[in-house]
Amino acid sequence: MTDKPLNYTAEPENTDPNELAAISFNENGVPTIAEANFKVQQIALDYLQFGDDVAEIQRQHPMLTKDQIQAAISYYLAHKESFDTKIEESLREYEKLHRDSADSLIRRRIRAWRQLR
Q1: pLDDT tens digits for range 71-105
Q2: Distance (Å, rounded) from C-alpha 76 to C-alpha 71?
Q3: Extended beta strands in 12-106, E state
Q4: Domain spans of the chain?
Q5: Among candidates 41, 33, 37, 35, which has minimal Cα distance to 69?
Q6: Residues 6, 86 contacting (CB under 8 angstroms)
Q7: pTM for the structure as a whole
């Protein structure tokens, strides 16, 4: 992962102030849906999977309102480059950890246990 923090807070010219009011930042500076403590990045991932189907995203996260989801999508789209960079970094980190743990002691024990069954 990069050492420099991502700039989620830079506001592009087309950002609606009402949508920004729906977004807050947690103690680590990560954008969340205000009053829900739900990361905007999760909605961004859902948006990438389901497109602009807000109803489907709400089915996945029924505790969120459609307005909250729409605000998160708008925030993601306004800061798409930063989010996409973070998502790619997370995916690379996951793949590295998966590769590095492929021959870990616990995995060897699990494979041995499965062979005994």
Answers
A1: 999 999 999 999 999 999 999 999 999 888 888 88
A2: 9
A3: 23-25, 31-33, 38-39
A4: 15-78, 81-117
A5: 33
A6: yes
A7: 0.70
How is residue 106 written in tokens? 């616990």
Tell me the Cα Rg of the chain: 18
Q: Which two tokens stand for residue 91?
A: 């995916």
For residue 63 the two structure tokens come to 């505790």
The type of residue at 80 is: K
Residues 7-52: pLDDT tens digits? 444 444 455 555 567 899 999 999 999 989 899 999 999 999 999 8
DSSP letter at 64 equals S
Length of the chain: 117
| Count of CB atoms situated within 10 Å of the CB of 86 | 19
Class of 15-78 per CATH?
Answer: mainly alpha
